[in-house]
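Trying the structure run again after the queue cleared.
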Amino acid sequence: MTPASNDAARYLEFAMDVIEQAGAIALKYFRTELEVINKAKKREYDPVTRADREIEEYIRGRIRETFPNHAIIGEEFGYQSGGSPYSWLIDPIDGTKGFITGSPMWGVLLGLMEAEYCITGLLRQPFLGETYYGSPAGAFLLDHAGRTPLKTRDTRSMDEAIVCCTHPGMFLTEDARRGFDRAARSCAFTRFGTDCYGYALLARGFVDLVVEGDLEAYDIVPLIPIVEGAGGIVTDWQGGSANRGGTVVAAANRALHARTLELLNS
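Done. Tokens:
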């Protein structure tokens, strides 16, 4: 399901403007002294800052003003119902732990779903001046050099693949941890601490896999059009939809994806 082309262009234009302004808010607080609150609900340490909340408030306000009948799902302020098939997913700072430690491995995420299909997804990394976005028209990087189409790598062999993961502690069961270890050991090497930016590196053709667990919908849904628009594939560990988060695998191509699923579930 895709919207009419004029609607798709309107939604993307709106989202690009909103996420750029949201990124400017993030930069105002990045690498400054910030009060950090531990909001731990399901994790031992789950930080939130004024930046997270201010960004989400800004994005929510823009959506309510422009599309008052669209639903909103955000990390900090939850679900707001709407009367249309459209819903926006907001992760104001994906990678807050990186943000508060001065690492640039974080981003602002924004996605628009029509029913169960994410038609527009964006990742803004303002410190690097990068916006990654995906839609039915493809996936692109917008930075100081202009607009560049994104293309995943053609790596087919696991022993040549590079895999990213935010942290091994995100696998909540012994089976999941063993599955990740099997897949990671089969790869050339693993990089941790990547948060949402690992998916950008995948879409850009620098890495081959992202394997993660314990994700919420807003952590992954905005990234799906970016990875898939670049030629990759994103599913849960059973090969089904990743729209609800949980355990997720993103791969540069279907051959690598199929082999990774075998290792994760064997």
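The helical segments are 5-29, 50-66, 96-100, 174-186, 197-204, 217-220, 224-229, 254-265. Worth checking whether this holds up in the mutant runs.
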